[in-house]
Design brief:
The chain is an alpha/beta fold. The chain has helices at about 1-10, 25-30, 35-50, 70-85, 95-105, 125-130, 165-180, 190-200, 220-230, 250-265, 280, 285-295, 310-320, 325-344; strands at about 15-20, 50-60, 90, 110-115, 135-140, 180, 205-210, 235, 270. α1 packs across α13. It is globular and about 55 Å long. The structure holds zinc ion. Zinc ion binds near residues 115, 185, 186, 207 and 275.
Amino acid sequence: MSEQIEERIARLHRHGVIDMHFDLPMDLYDKRDRQNVLATDFLEDLEAGDIAVAAAAIYIHDRYLPEMGLRVALDQIARLYIEVGESDRFAICRSHREILQVREQNKIALLLTMEGVEPLGGDLDLLRVFYELGLRSLCLTHVRRNAAGDGGLFAPSGSPRDGLTSFGRDVIRESEKLGIIIDLAHISPAGFDDIIEMTTKPIIISHTNARKYYDIERNVTDDQIKAIGARGGVIGINAVLVSPHKEEATLDRYIDHIAHVRDLIGIDSVAIGFDFFEFIYRQWSEAEQIAFQNKFTHAHFVPELQKHSHSRSLTRRLIERGFSDAEIERILFGNWMRIFEQWL
Ligand SMILES: [Zn+2]
């Protein structure tokens, strides 16, 4: 019986698994004094989890802002290109067609994304530069305020109510025009409404959780989930903000988030945005860890879902929870591929 399930997992993973949020460029930048970091630190785990596409998110740490934001972003992209050049197992992809080609060669496709537009400062022309460098998805903000708008707080209420700035609106308009996927992860509730109102394409949330299980404004309400569904968009479920209670931060609760989104807007609109972060957290000093916990209260890593190789456990549990093969394939792969086909 257990062998049968392993075979079924292998079959369900034959196209691979797509993770729409991974803080890879930041870690490559932090390790810039080393070579072959991608091959040494990441390849084995990504392959063990059958990862097909990983969204590599540019993110700028507070300590570099504002002056160093652009430079660190460019250096993160440089590290990504240099590292990919040193391995024959990865490729940076700019289109749906390139992703298909790279998968034919059995390489891992990396999609360059941006979490917070701080690197742009207030200069819209730089969005075009990042597009030419391969940027294909962006969310306007992390938690902190920037020139585009505000992030949703890690609290049940209190996020700023003024929505997007005119620069934020310009970035959204230009992204939709260029073909940079618009991602509503982290944006404040007011900013969320603004973006839904001013766009027409299928909008995504790369990594978030349902407020039903973790009620903070960084996560999404049922109405917000329905707004994404009405647009034909996709929501990636985050493995870090699964529950405010440590004992409930489990693989089953992660799947509860998937099931909740499916029940509200259908199986075509739910996917994966793991946001695996424990490997970075582990590298921090105790003072940095305390600062993180104070800033983002109650972020609990899910013990059975902390790294990409764990995606096999996720698939096993989805099977045990009664998800059909067709449903699992859409969650793991098909839904994000449809978004790539529509946008890229
Ligand atoms: Zn995030």
